[in-house]
Amino acid sequence: MAAVDKLFLGSIPEIYDRLMVPLIFEPYARDLAERIARTRPEDLLETAAGTGVLTRAIASHLPGRSRMIATDLNQPMLDRAAAAKALEGRVTWRQADALALPFEDQKFDVVACQFGVMFFPDKIKGYREARRVLKPRGRFFFNVWAEIDKNEFADTVTQALAAIFPHDPPLFMARTPHGYHDVAKIREELIAAGFAGISVETIDHTSRTSTPRDAAVAYCQGTPLRSEIEARDAARLEDATKAAANALANRFGNGPIEGRIRAHVFAATS
Ligand SMILES: C[S@@+](CC[C@H](N)C(=O)[O-])C[C@H]1O[C@@H](n2cnc3c(N)ncnc32)[C@H](O)[C@@H]1O
Q1: Substitution site in 6, 26, 30 for ligand 1 pocket (most atoms within 8 Å of beta carbon)
Q2: Are 269 and 196 within 8 A, CB to CB?
Q3: Closest Cα to atom 25, ligand 1: which residue?
Q4: Which of 173, 89, 101, 92 is nearest to 140 (CA)?
């Protein structure tokens, strides 16, 4: 993982929340929240919470007495989440690295992490930290994206950008969000961190957007892919976004478009 991959800063949080979240994150947040609600947690920690799509989904499923702390490495993502005010009084937002959590041992019934573990520089260390803060027989719920070719918009955008920067293609999407999908390896790493009772399910959804342009802006400007493009030539961010929009239009059509998305959903017991 490149150092820039974990930085969701500047104009990224606003575009991520407005375009990227409805495009690919909302259906998986509903799925994870339903799984979590079935365990009836009273104390819940979310790591890599971003702009709070899973936090909101969990809150809508849990009784008011449940206590939720939502954390993320990047304070600007949490600022965007807190600004929505939807969860005021129901959740504590707190900046924290998932690999060094500022909480005592055995505090939570559930730790949840939506599409965050791929960003952990040391996966086993991140899993150990989740386990440390879980009560005995607490549950860790998380999801990861499948291979990039099973996620059609991400794949199309990545190929379009490789054509623009052929000598140094921006591979953020393939390298990090879609770079940690080997189910057997993830299971082994959870066991190495001390987890048991591991289950995994592969879930397909359809990604929908009203125009190819919206999806292109989401990927090229609302994720760390933006920093990768700007590092090659800041003046070409708009060119790159247009190339991605054209590639999406060529493959999926103009106007409202749909693409397949796939993720693996894990649950493990401490
Ligand atoms: C793809 S976003 C997912 C955000 C949110 N869970 C969602 O579903 O929209 C990945 C998130 O991981 C966060 N992140 C990256 N490295 C992290 C770390 N070491 N600890 C905690 N959060 C981290 C980023 O700031 C970003 O918000």
Answers
A1: 6
A2: yes
A3: 74
A4: 101
Over the stretch 130-184, which tens digit does the pLDDT of each residue have?
999 999 999 999 999 999 999 999 999 999 999 999 999 999 999 999 999 999 9
CB-facing half-sphere around the CA of 17: CA atoms within 13 A: 22
What are the pocket residues of ligand 1 if the criterion is a CB atom closer than 6 Å to any ligand atom? 6, 8, 21, 25, 47-51, 53-54, 72-74, 77, 97-99, 114-116, 119-120
Q: What span, in angstroms and rounded, lies between the C-alpha atoms of 181 and 188?
A: 13
Q: Domain count of the chain?
A: 1
Instruction: Tell me the pTM.
Output: 0.97
Q: Domain containing 211 — which CATH number? A: 3.40.50.150
Q: What are the phi and psi torsion angles at 268 (to 5°)?
A: -145, 150
Give the closest residue (by CA) to ligand 1 atom 17. Answer: 73
**Domain containing 136: what range?**
3-269
Task: Let me know if 163 is exposed, middle or buried by CB neighbors in 10 A (0-12, 13-18, 19+).
Answer: exposed
Q: Report which DSSP code applies to 70.
A: E
